[in-house]
Amino acid sequence: MSERLASHNLAKDEAVAGPVTDMDRSVLFLTTAFANKLSKGASRRLKKVLGIGLMEWRVVCNLGVEPGRSAARIAEVSGVDKSVVSRAVAELERQGLITTASGQPGRQTALRLTPVGQALHDRGVLRADEREFRILDGFSPEEQDRLVEFLKRLTQNLERLEEGPH
Model-level pTM? Predict the structure, then answer.
């Protein structure tokens, strides 16, 4: 194992024995903490501004990108369990923001935004863009591009790790 990152070291405090995580250097800790804080804030804002939760927003975003996506595909793209997406779909359908259409037998249900859902999507995307712009404050365009590439690469590495032998 590489020592480059050194996010796990022997404890310097005599009261703690063995290896400890350097929370200032651990990519796993830092990304998880960032994602949790981002999700928590987003969830609160989405409920207040759009009247839906974070998972419902993820479904709406997916359908804005690709109308007709199935719940299974949304779960795959979003990295969440299909049951969580199914609950969000039921809530969005209850609110009249999406419609479901069964295709041919054996095919997955296609989900689409209603006109009201599309309007909500469009309002939400503008707010999300503003929030992302603020989060990236101080990053040059080149740094933003590198960050996106790094995140994509980390995701690919994680997918390979999860697929490989345990």
Answer: 0.80
